[in-house]
Amino acid sequence: MGHETWVRVENLEKGLCGKSRHVFFRGVATVVTKLFNIVEPDVAVFGKKDYQQWRIIQTMVRDLDFGIKVIGSEIVREHDGLAMCSGNVKLSPENRQKALSISPALSRTKVEAEKGQVNCRELINCAIQTINEAGGRVDYAEIVEQESLEPVETIKTPVVFCVAAWFGKVRLVDNTEIDV
After folding, report:
1. Confidence class for position 3, pLDDT limits 50, 70, 90
2. What does it catalyze (predicted)?
3. Which of 44, 141, 130, 47 is nearest to 86 (CA)?
4. Which residue, 40, 46, 87, 159, is most buried by CB atoms nearer than 10 A?
């Protein structure tokens, strides 16, 4: 008999990666809950590269009253700027070169926002164009509020610009926090 019990963080799992990976975060939350029950840690560190996952775990820990401090660690990048990920080794040399477009697209967006460009549609379109021109296929590009992960139209509070893009058969995620 299969499992019938799952842990869900319903609102946070709907957007971003949840749009194309419908039950992925249900599995993540369930497995992490089981791990936390077995190990009983005081602290858990999750990488911010998977920003949505980090926020889901934070919320789950809060809602289920775990006595665990969940820390988000900054994105670690390879020497060429690509966010470290197990999927990077699956990239062909040509697609790896194309994938290098993500980080500069996000950085440029952050700089533009810091200079006063707060229209999210314009910022998003610029990043999508950069990635598409490099040969990537954008799965999503969204600017969302940092805690609720709700999309915003204008940057007024701290946000995160999250991107997922395909390079060949490899889907990569990356993001940048913008605090203007």
Report:
1. confident
2. (R)-pantoate + beta-alanine + ATP = (R)-pantothenate + AMP + diphosphate + H(+)
3. 47
4. 159
Tokens read off for 42 = 């005081």
124 close to 89: Cβ distance less than 8 angstroms: no
Map residue 72 onto helix, strand or coil: strand
- The C-alpha atoms of residue 139 and residue 175 are separated, in whole angstroms, by 13
Amino acid 165: pLDDT = 98
Say how far apart CA 26 and CA 13 lie, in whole Å. 8
Q: Which of 53, 96, 105 is nearest to 78 (CA)?
A: 96
Chain segment 72-92, per-residue pLDDT in tens: 999 999 999 999 999 999 999
For 122-150, what is each residue's pLDDT tens digit?
A: 999 999 999 999 999 999 999 999 999 99
Cβ–Cβ < 8 Å for 175, 77? no
Residues 6+ apart with CB under 8 A from 73: 45, 46, 47, 48
Question: Residue 57 and residue 170: Cα distance in Å, rounded?
Answer: 25
